[in-house]
Amino acid sequence: MRQFRRYAKYSPGADAIYVYLNDLPVAYTKELDDLRHIDYSADGGVVGVEFLGVSAGVDLSDIPFEREVGQLIGDLGLGIKIYV
After folding, report:
1. Closest by alpha carbon to 25, among 42, 4, 8?
2. Integer Cα distance of 61 and 4 in angstroms
3. Per-residue model confidence as pLDDT tens for the chain (84 residues)
4. H helices then E strands: how many in the chain?
5. CB of 18 closer than 8 Å to CB of 26
6. Among candidates 62, 41, 26, which has minimal Cα distance to 51?
7. Are strands 36-40 and 46-52 parallel, antiparallel or unpaired?
């Protein structure tokens, strides 16, 4: 059985972070607001979370797997402020 390792990736040009939580295909996206989007698989599992405008900080309220997502963003070592 193949194992997926969760990780976050920063795009400086877009000032965005995408946190990969699953490697299933994205079936739909839920917009929490203009800066936060959650991607879901067909079975409703969370595939990933996109954060835009991250230089101003990241809001983790209402984000699934909030603690792990915050840790993965912190692991990038960018000093981005995290709000809960």
Report:
1. 42
2. 25
3. 568 899 999 999 999 999 999 999 999 999 999 999 999 999 999 999 999 999 999 999 999 999 999 999 999 999 999 998
4. 1, 7
5. no
6. 62
7. antiparallel
